[in-house]
From TrEMBL, chain A:
It is a multi-pass membrane protein. It comes from the Bacteria. It is found in: Cell membrane. GO terms for biological process: amino acid transport. It holds the Pfam family BPD_transp_2. Signal peptide: none annotated. The keyword ATP-binding does not apply. The chain crosses the membrane at residues 6-30, 37-57, 63-84, 96-117, 137-161, 182-211, 223-249, 256-279. This is Amino acid/amide ABC transporter membrane protein 1, HAAT family. Belongs to the binding-protein-dependent transport system permease family. LivHM subfamily.
TrEMBL record, chain B:
It comes from Poseidonocella pacifica. This is Amino acid/amide ABC transporter substrate-binding protein, HAAT family. Pfam families: Peripla_BP_6 (PF13458). CDD domains: PBP1_ABC_ligand_binding-like. GO terms for biological process: amino acid transport.
Amino acid sequence: MEQIIQTLILGLALGGVFALMGSGLSLVFGVMRIVNLAHPSLIIAGAYATYWAFKLWGIDPLVMLPVAAIILAAIGVLLYKLVFEREARSAKYSEMTVLLTFATAMIVEGALGGMFTNTQRVTSPSYATDAIFIGNIFIPTGQLYAGIVSLLIISALALFLKYSRFGNAIRATTQNREAAELLGVNVNLVCIMSFAIGIGLAGAAGSLVSFVFSFFPAKHWEWVAVLMSLVVLGGMGSILGTVIASFMLCVVAAFVGAYVGATWSTMTFFLALFLILLIRPQGLFGEKPELA
Amino acid sequence: MKTNLALGLASIVASLGAPAFSQDGPIKIGASLPLTGSFSIAGQKHQQGYELCVDLINERGGILGREVELIVSDNRSDPATAINQYERFLNVDGVEAVYGTFSSRLSFPVANILARNGMVHALPAGGALRIYEQGHDNIFYFQPNAAEYVGASLAGVVRDLVPAEEAPKTVAIISADDFFANGVWSGLMGEIVTDPADGSEVADLSPGYLAELGLEVVYSERWPEEGFNDWLNLANQVRQTEPDLIIGLTASAEEAVQLTRAFDTVRATPQMVYFSQGTQAEYLEGTGDSAQGVLVHTSWHSDAPFQSLLAGSEFSNQDFVGAYEAAYGSPPDEDSAIPFAVCQGIEQAMVGAGTTDNAAMGDWLDARTKEDAVRTILGRFSWDDRGLPVEKPFLMTQWNDGELQFIYPTDEFEGVSAMSYPKGSF
């Protein structure tokens, strides 16, 4: 029983971190239909900003989190204006964004490597490797804090989307871009701001990642498929779905790792991706596409 | 006018100081390295090692009077790209020699291309025994031994440095499912190494170093080569078996950081910990006090008093450390020292053979003996028929008080530090 509880705790703790990592990706797809393969590389950028703030000035990653989010959000605005805005009305927009974001990921990786070298980094605040022990069961404080902060940010985002005027505009654009435009929503502004929020979430996730995992510029390739599987399982564009999928898959992976073998735990994400595409392509909370 | 005069004088002074190279054109040497992708950390350091060595050779007059031109390509940690790039070096760029790439995963397929083209294949990394059992006679490995025999150093440490009554009795062994790490695993566990192509036996390593030490394996597990994130869960599995010795065979120093931090979090308390990676400064930065007492094998250590040759002159290990720090502003580690040694080996082969003809260079390298060896900053090298170094032990190091100390073998050099034991908590 102890083993089951421990495995559940470790799965949930990891799920909290992945929930924030995947949320920005989901938001950006939901509003703009951009499959942002560059999202993990921007998480790494946020991690680097946090690492250097900690290294040079001793700023705690959790304090640095809003700063990293704002820096990355500003980069998001720039990126959208430079790369995506002009193609927004293209008939093959979604397909094109796959190529554009793939190229962006490589450019971000190269830029990070040029600026910071390919050396691996990790931020080490005192809580990063600490744990709360209750008998023989432990809760890792680093992942606990990361999970709590992650859920707070996602809750704030959910409240913003549900109750603010701009949030309503984002949701309207997500549901039907043309109808939102007809009703007077400034869709271009919504897209810019949504992209900025999505990339800002990558920055925030980067701050958490910086003390949960070690990282280097090329690390993002390891996360692309995992994050995609979370977003697809949750339903492309559904932030709630992504959060639930993150907890589900991380818990399942933890149990697979504990009871089947570590070799198979990573496979859980890809198996889930395969099965969900086979059985329910729209994901757990996604809408079934209408047939013309 | 003054500017032109100054520039003219400067160019005259510079030309007087610069070595005069032959008119035959530069010797082109190609190296395909993983500068991006999963091996990019080590790949970039390999590039630095090669470039520093070539720069120093050129400052000293080049090889056979010719300047050396290094062509480096990024293979993105992808075996197919590495193969294509070596073929391009040979068929398009017209290189006269090559330097090897990083990791067994990339070196294994590259070995066939270079053998087919009769090129000397000097490997900085590629420890899997299978690479040397393919029957190629052009391979020369520039680390002490194949991965399968790394465990001999760990066994030596346990046997020679730990009092018998305090020796570990149980072991947990965890490993990346990686070419190199799997090789180390095979040696420790005493497995039969087979050729994946036809299933034939390459080597029978039974009973294995762990069995020879009388250690009981209480936990063994592998994690996937890429994308593994569940370090705490894995560390917790190990902790629950309460092993005396933890062996972590990581594919990179980055994984060693993740493992060490995970063991720290779960409060594992082994008597002894050995990792296959973790000599780098970044490992210490990422792990802090948790690194205390961790054993790591290495091919190079800054304290080893190796005297080598570079461009015909004596060049000590300390000279290398000084030149590296001057060039890159930080101390080197083995990921830069090993490729530097490869470059020294190729230079000595060209000079020794008096030509850049690879068949002659290969014959010259083959003819090296322990007394008349290739002399590098990794020590002296001569090779057996397979291309593995003869009688060359790995160095065993241990992190103590924030310093990577050289602890074993004890009779190789002066100044060996005492091993701290037991480790206890992380």
